[in-house]
Amino acid sequence: MQCRPVRKIYYNAGNGYTVASYITEEELPEKVVQKGNGGYGLFQAVGIELPTSDGLDLELEGEWKNGKYGMQYEVSCFKVYTPTTEEGIRAYLSSNLIKGIGPVTAEEIVNKFGKKTFYVLENCPEELLNVRGITESRLNEIIACYRKSNDLRELMVYMSPLGLTPRKIAMIQEYFGNAALHIVKENPFRLCEISGFGFLTVDPIAIRAKNFKPNNPFRIKAAIQHIMKEAEEEGHLFLTSQNILDGASRLLNHKRDTGLVSERAIKDAGNDMIRKEGSLIVDRGAFYTPKCFHAELGAAAALVKLMMQKGMEVKIDGILERIQKNEKIILSKKQKEAIRMAFSHPVSIITGGPGRGKTTIIRFIIAIQEVLNKEAAILLCAPTGKARRRMYESTGYPALTIHKAVGLTGEEGEDEWNDYHTMPDDLVIADEFSMVDMFLADKLFSSIKSGARLVMVGDKDQIESVGPGNVFKEMIDSNVIPVTILDENFRQESNSTIYQNGDKINKNRLDLVFDDTFQFYPAMNAKEASEIIQKLYQEELEMQKGTWDDVQVLSPLRKDTEVGADALNLVLHDIVNPHRKGYPEVKNGKQIFRENDKVMQIKNMDEVSNGDVGEVLNIYHQDGKNMMRVDFGDERIMTYEDDDFWPLIHAYAMSVHKSQGSEYPVVILPMLSCFRRMLRRNLFYTAVTRAQKKVIIVGSKRAMAQAIRTDAVTKRNTRFGEQIQRLLSESKRQQRKTA
Question: What are the phi and psi torsion angles at 702 (to 5°)?
């Protein structure tokens, strides 16, 4: 129906849900009819990102629904008409549709150009420079936003009948830019490139838009790309031809009534992707996306180049003895071996669990390097902000995230480089290397200069990286890189039950010991476990004097259960930081944020990294938007606005994966059969070894036994170790030929 906004009643910044009232001259249902000004019909509408600025002419499409607040018009799509009156033009310009133009500037523009305003915007926008307050840079912003709003409007007209919400359409516009409409019209399956648009979501849209036949090559290729993307999310770098055929057939034939897609058609489309498009690469029977193939091969080549460096051996026994004497520290045999290895080879690995003396070794390596060359540049780095801070606190030496060190910025998954360069550092020590995936390893190895020394430190028994590959384990298992395994515990609390049980878990032993520092509370199901965890969390907070830094709930999963991190955060939030009347709150999706909340960043940005934990300082209102400031430590205070699609979640509970690189005085861990595939030895070991003083397990001993008995490593399709061996062998053979 055609209408105009009257007022905005409610708006949720997290998901764009809007409730607003509108007036129309069209006939309304009897239950709805209310007379507004001038005898117009007044009604309420609900939908996503509905326009609410005064003076706009709209067309809403949807259906009437009778709900809690009476009869409302539920909008499925809308269209904003370009106004023809000066009043309408003024309203259109001063709405949020065009950034850079507020009510005052809109008034100035309309006063100058009147009804010709849109002609000026379309054909001679430079005329706007004659309007007071519009500079060259502001004009560029206005032009870009005006064109974007036009493009978005055209995209909405095309896509709304296909069943997409305005929020989804805005995501498409954001991803593809001004070419969005052209791209979607030509091949709607390209929507699969966007996060949140899986093949099964896009398939019916594409069929409605283009009437694609089941065996259309665009459709088959989209299914193959979806299978490859799915595999990457599960940690694989490649798939076999049978993996692809089985997966694509399952997707393409999920509706039998549309006709079956043959295996031959899938093979033909796959061959086309390899031979013509280059969107698939086949190497010795393994099928890769170009991104995964080049990361695996590039990382192996860069690493082998470092390993092949000559003249890197340095005798350091005398220096090592002097530093031990000065520091009044007696190193173990294995610790000395690790340090000598670091200075005997250009690339080396040190691995061991918590308390095995890794930090002491790093401090000694730094000290020796400074004695050898006071001018040497030393880089300490780690894959996350938390691990970086722990490295700095434990060594007293500045440290960076690997992303920052190599010049990689932007959101996770984006290949955005700020200032790509070969790093100047003579010694690179990278900690928590078990967390490093194939993509990050490639960036790091490729950025290290010739003549530099690389030492990688980590715990081989921890869970694999979140991203694809199994880099740390593959390097160790390749048997061509010098490795020192630390197996002696040096911490004063090494005799504690936590460390004893950690060793037992690693050795596939079920005879865990329970006492005050390693506690167990039985729970029959997820609901009961959640209730016990809430009670224990509150008790532990009181014992730790209420500091949420000291008590951390970890879960094998984020979703799909009442004891997943997401569900636990909802209930723990109200225990730690309940609603207080009169105090500010802001909603983002299902989450309500309050001042003093513990939150986690879940995307890499310039100043904060994925996994960084911070505290909400304050929430306030500015320029019609909700604002929130978060303190991430190290003088990093970030400001978030309504329309940022905040990359924040609560952090009272977190997944075990997100806890890597951190330690907490107290860890509370649910272990139940509902976690199924996540009940693995290395995950259980990782969770337990995050605790410094106390572990509290809630669940069943049967689930714990299943985790211990399940081999630590899930098989991932990766050939990184093989690539290192092959390239190293080729390099040595080439070296012998030229000798």
Answer: -65, -40
CB neighbours of 124 closer than 8 A, spacing ≥ 6?
Answer: none
Residue 699 has a CB neighbour count (10 Å cut-off) of 26
What type of residue is 240? T
**Tokens representing residue 459 in the block:** 């715990």
Could you report the per-residue pLDDT of 448-475, keeping only the tens digit for each?
999 999 999 999 988 888 889 999 999 9
- The position carrying tokens 């034939």 is 253
Residue 593 three-state SS: strand
CA dihedral 657, 663, 666, 670 (to 10 degrees): 10
| pLDDT for res 173 | 81
Q: Give the residue with greater pLDDT, 446 vs 590.
A: 446
Gyration radius from the chain CA atoms: 30
User: Amino acid identity, residue 607?
Assistant: E
Q: Contact 564/536 with Cβ under 8 angstroms?
A: no
Measured at the CA of 509, the angle between CA 505 and CA 510, to 5 degrees, comes to 95
Cα 447 from chain centroid?
23
Report in angstroms the alpha-carbon separations of 261 from 210, 229, 241, 438.
Answer: 18, 21, 16, 34
Rounded distance between C-alpha atoms, residue 675 and residue 219, angstroms: 34
- Give the β-pairing of 286-288 and 281-283: antiparallel
CA distance 57 to 4: 5
- What's the CA dihedral at 316, 320, 321, 322 to 10 degrees? 100
- Compute the average pLDDT of residues 408-413: 52
Q: What is the CA angle 659-606-596, rounded to 5?
A: 55
- CB-based contact 60:78 (threshold 8 Å): yes
DSSP letter at 228 equals H
CA-based nearest residue to 289, from 231, 234, 242: 231
Cβ count near 491 (within 10 Å) = 13
List, as own/partner pairs, every contact residues 334-341 make where C-beta atoms lie below 8 angstroms and the sequence separation is at least 24, other chains included.
334/484, 334/485, 334/486, 334/487, 334/488, 335/360, 335/361, 335/364, 335/486, 337/484, 338/484, 338/486, 339/364, 339/365, 339/368, 340/316, 341/482, 341/484
Question: Whole-angstrom Cα distance, residue 269 to residue 252?
Answer: 13
The pLDDT tens digits of the residues spanning 168-226 come to: 777 888 788 878 888 888 888 899 888 778 888 888 888 887 777 888 899 999 999 99
Contact 603, 596 (CB under 8 A): no
- pTM for the structure as a whole: 0.77
Residues 6+ apart with CB under 8 A from 71: 29, 31, 32, 43, 64, 65
Between 385-395 and 358-372, two packed helices, what is the crossing angle to 10 degrees? Answer: 70
Backbone angles phi, psi at 629, to 5 degrees: -110, 135
Sequence-distant (≥ 6) Cβ neighbours of residue 80 within 8 angstroms: 51, 56, 57, 58, 92, 97, 153
